[in-house]
């Protein structure tokens, strides 16, 4: 059965995000089933999704847009099947229907949901973007944006146009990881915890954490001017 964010509400009324399901890694290791080959992978995004947009930003910053193709779905959820009421990311019928969105030329899918079902007939999780797709094996490599950007940063340097650009330098990894942890929990995911909370108490707590984290960001930025 199709799931959405509304299915991720705990007994207390709080939003609890489920973990991404496809967590394979592209690697130059000789034993890797997913080697970093030019033209093999495709990134499915939505310009309306911040998680997907950061992957697209990495793709362009690293100069991988010639090695890894990408396409965007429509920015507003629509029904994905006639057989149920689930609404999710869908592809347009033509390139002129919605600016920036285009039909799925690789698999002929009508929705992101169909891609997940191609990759796993028994999949029961959410149908999210980004999706890093393997054209050769016709499957999803990874749908976790934080891991996709790490792969783009290091695993494709032999074919990247900007291999010297390192957005996760060794001397800053610990600080980046520490900062990402509270930014993700309180801001990136925090807005979802505020918006999807079904009871006032978890909403208030998520809001408190969100604004405390925003103040913390403001203080850090002031120190770095």
TrEMBL record:
<dbReference type="GO" id="GO:0004364">
    <property type="term" value="F:glutathione transferase activity"/>
</dbReference>
<feature type="domain" description="GST N-terminal">
    <location>
        <begin position="48"/>
        <end position="154"/>
    </location>
</feature>
<dbReference type="InterPro" id="IPR016639">
    <property type="entry name" value="GST_Omega/GSH"/>
</dbReference>
<protein>
    <recommendedName>
        <fullName>GST N-terminal domain-containing protein</fullName>
    </recommendedName>
</protein>
<dbReference type="GO" id="GO:0005737">
    <property type="term" value="C:cytoplasm"/>
</dbReference>
<dbReference type="InterPro" id="IPR004045">
    <property type="entry name" value="Glutathione_S-Trfase_N"/>
</dbReference>
<dbReference type="InterPro" id="IPR036249">
    <property type="entry name" value="Thioredoxin-like_sf"/>
</dbReference>
<dbReference type="InterPro" id="IPR036282">
    <property type="entry name" value="Glutathione-S-Trfase_C_sf"/>
</dbReference>
<dbReference type="Pfam" id="PF13409">
    <property type="entry name" value="GST_N_2"/>
</dbReference>
């Amino acid at each position: 059965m199709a799931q959405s964010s509304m299915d991720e509400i705990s007994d207390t009324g709080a939003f609890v995000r489920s973990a991404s399901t496809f967590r394979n890694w592209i690697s130059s290791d000789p034993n890797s089933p997913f080697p970093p080959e030019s033209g093999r992978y495709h990134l499915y995004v939505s310009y309306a999704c911040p998680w997907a947009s950061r992957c697209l930003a990495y793709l362009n910053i690293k100069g991988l847009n010639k090695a890894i193709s990408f396409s965007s779905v429509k920015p507003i959820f629509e029904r994905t099947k006639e057989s149920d009421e689930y609404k999710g990311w869908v592809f347009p019928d033509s390139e002129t229907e919605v600016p920036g969105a285009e039909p799925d030329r690789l698999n002929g899918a009508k929705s992101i949901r169909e891609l997940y079902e191609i990759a796993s007939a028994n999949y029961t999780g959410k149908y999210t973007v980004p999706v890093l797709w393997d054209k050769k094996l016709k499957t999803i490599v990874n749908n976790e944006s934080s891991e996709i950007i790490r792969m783009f940063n290091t695993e494709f340097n032999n074919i990247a146009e900007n291999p010297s650009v390192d957005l996760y330098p060794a001397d800053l990894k610990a600080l980046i990881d520490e900062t990402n942890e509270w930014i993700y929990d309180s801001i990136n995911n925090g807005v979802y915890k505020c918006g999807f909370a079904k009871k006032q108490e978890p909403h208030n707590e998520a809001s408190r954490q969100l604004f405390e984290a925003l103040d913390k960001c403001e203080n850090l930025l002031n120190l770095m001017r």
